[in-house]
Amino acid sequence: MTDQLPPNLDAEAIARHCVTVCEERKAADILLFDVREQSILADFYVVCSGTSMPHVRALAEHIRLAMQDQGLAARGRDGGHDSQWIVMDYGVIMVHILMPDLRRYYCLEELWDKRKVIYQGGAPLPPVRPGATPAPLPPHQLARQDEERAEQE
C-alpha cells in the first residue's frame, strides 16, 4: 500500500497527522488502527465522531486541507452535505467520521482487533440525548444480547 504515497511521505506519520487534526478540531472518540496485515484496502483506519452534522463536515474539511498540505488528494469521498457519515479514502489511509448514533449502530471499531489500535484519544462519545429515541441495535448486537440473556437464565 505504501507505494501509493510520494516517496518522501510515511503512511503512519500521515495517519497520525490526521489524528492530530481530529484532536485539534475536538473530534470525539478517535481511534487509529494499524491494519497493514489484515486489509488490502488501506494500511491505517482513522475512526472518529463529530458532535453535530456541521462538526462532521468541518472535521472532513480540515482533514482534506491538512492532507492537501501534505501533497495528498483523496482518491474518493463518500458523504454529502447532509450526511451523518463521511468516508475519505487516501489510499493508505481511510478516514471515517460519524455522528455518535451511527457510530454506535455500525460499531466500525469491532471490525478490527483491539490490539491493532495504535492511538486512542479525544473526548468520549457524547451520551444519548435525553428524550431521544435510541437507534435500534444492529443485528449482530441483538444476537449478542440474546446470547447473554440465555447464559444468565
TrEMBL record:
It comes from the Bacteria. Residues 125-153 are annotated as: Disordered. Coiled coil: none annotated. GO terms for cellular component: cytoplasm. Gene3D superfamilies: Beta Polymerase, domain 2. Keywords: Cytoplasm, Repressor, Translation regulation. GO terms for molecular function: ribosomal large subunit binding. GO terms for biological process: cytosolic ribosome assembly; negative regulation of ribosome biogenesis; negative regulation of translation. Its main location: cytoplasm. The keyword ATP-binding does not apply. Residues 143-153 have a biased composition (Basic and acidic residues). The keyword Repressor applies. It is found in: Cytoplasm. Residues 125-139 have a biased composition (Pro residues). Functions as a ribosomal silencing factor. Interacts with ribosomal protein uL14 (rplN), blocking formation of intersubunit bridge B8. Prevents association of the 30S and 50S ribosomal subunits and the formation of functional ribosomes, thus repressing translation. Belongs to the Iojap/RsfS family. Interacts with ribosomal protein uL14 (rplN). This is Ribosomal silencing factor RsfS. It comes from Oligosphaera ethanolica. The gene is rsfS.
